[in-house]
């Protein structure tokens, strides 16, 4: 990651209530900015839809690549076995079948807000209280439920679905960092400058009272969360943490 983790930046702000008495998002100027709002800010909605579309448009390319390397690996294993004089069945090559739009909708049906982003207009979620949201994908988190659905939808071995899903989430994460997080930082810095907040103010030690960040902050382990998470983003598992958690009644 070329930029600081959002949670780290937001935590730093929580530790300086003298500089940041309110936590209004400087992009929409409407809502409080917490770790979730960074990605759910209305000002980022259009960008999110665009990034999503681009990533969706690359799935077949990633699928073909993953399928080719899968087949090549099976072929190598077969050759090695034959060279050792073992009798093994010749592997049957797997094909990549381009998923239809309905397949895709089924594939991400466990992700809150995904249908709305996919169609570019409000749409209901399958699950009443989805465990994962589009904002989690933008933060580079790969939900296990999505892998299970994708493997069925793509009719491929799990390992191919996993490769494609990692590419998909990796693309979302990289683009969101560039097109959502960085502009968010620019907007915040512009606001800080207008308030006369200097870098020195931001780095100097503050000893006054603080919001109790530590209680609202922590690693939250959801069921279904597995090892398939971008390692760089593991500390970002603060579902509701923000720099003004006490105002959220946490
Ligand atoms: Zn906002």
Please give a structural write-up.
α3 (45-57) packs antiparallel against α9, α5 (101-107) packs antiparallel against α8 and α8 (144-154) packs across α9 (158-194). This protein is an all-alpha fold and 250 residues long. It has a two-stranded parallel sheet. 50% of the residues lie in helices and 2% in strands. 30% of the residues are buried. It has one domain. The protein contains eleven helices and two strands. It has helices at 6-14, 37-40, 45-57, 59-83, 101-107, 114-119, 134-138, 144-154, 158-194, 199-203, 213-216, and strands at 111-112, 132-133.
Average pLDDT number: 79
Number of helices: 11
Give the bound compounds. Answer: zinc ion
**What portion of residues belong to β-strands?**
under 5%
Derived from helix and strand composition plus strand pairing, the structural class reads mainly alpha
Low-confidence parts, pLDDT < 50 over ≥5 residues?
212-250
| Distance between the ends | 29 Å
- Largest sheet geometry: 2 strands, parallel
**Strand count:** 2
Lateral strand order in the biggest sheet: 1-2
* Domains (count): 1
Which H/E pattern describes the elements? HHHHHEHEHHHHH
Q: Which range best describes the helical content: under 10%, 10-25%, 25-40%, 40-55%, 55-70% or over 70%?
A: 40-55%
What characteristic shape results from the CA principal axes?
A: elongated
* Gyration radius, in Å: 22 Å
């Amino acid at each position: 990651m070329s930029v600081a983790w959002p949670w780290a930046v937001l935590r730093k702000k929580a530790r300086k209530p003298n500089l940041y008495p309110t936590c209004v998002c400087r992009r929409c100027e409407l809502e409080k900015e917490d770790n979730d709002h960074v990605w759910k800010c209305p000002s980022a909605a259009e960008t999110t839809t665009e990034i999503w579309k681009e990533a969706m448009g690359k799935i077949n390319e990633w699928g073909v690549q993953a399928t080719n390397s899968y087949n090549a690996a099976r072929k190598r294993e077969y050759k090695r076995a034959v060279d050792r004089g073992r009798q093994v069945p010749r592997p049957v090559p797997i094909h990549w079948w381009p998923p239809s739009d309905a397949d895709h909708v089924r594939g991400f049906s466990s992700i809150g807000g995904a249908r709305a982003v996919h169609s570019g207009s409000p749409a209901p979620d399958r699950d009443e209280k989805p465990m994962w949201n589009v904002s989690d994908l933008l933060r580079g988190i790969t939900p296990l439920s999505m892998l299970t659905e994708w493997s069925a939808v793509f009719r491929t071995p799990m390992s191919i679905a996993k490769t494609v899903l990692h590419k998909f989430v990796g693309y979302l994460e990289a683009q969101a960092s560039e097109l959502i997080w960085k502009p968010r930082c620019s907007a915040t810095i512009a606001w800080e400058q207008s308030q006369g907040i200097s870098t020195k103010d931001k780095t100097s030690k503050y000893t006054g009272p603080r919001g109790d960040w530590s209680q609202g902050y922590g690693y939250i382990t959801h069921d279904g969360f597995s090892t398939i998470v971008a390692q760089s983003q593991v500390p970002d598992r603060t579902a509701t943490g923000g720099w003004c958690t006490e105002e959220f009644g946490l």
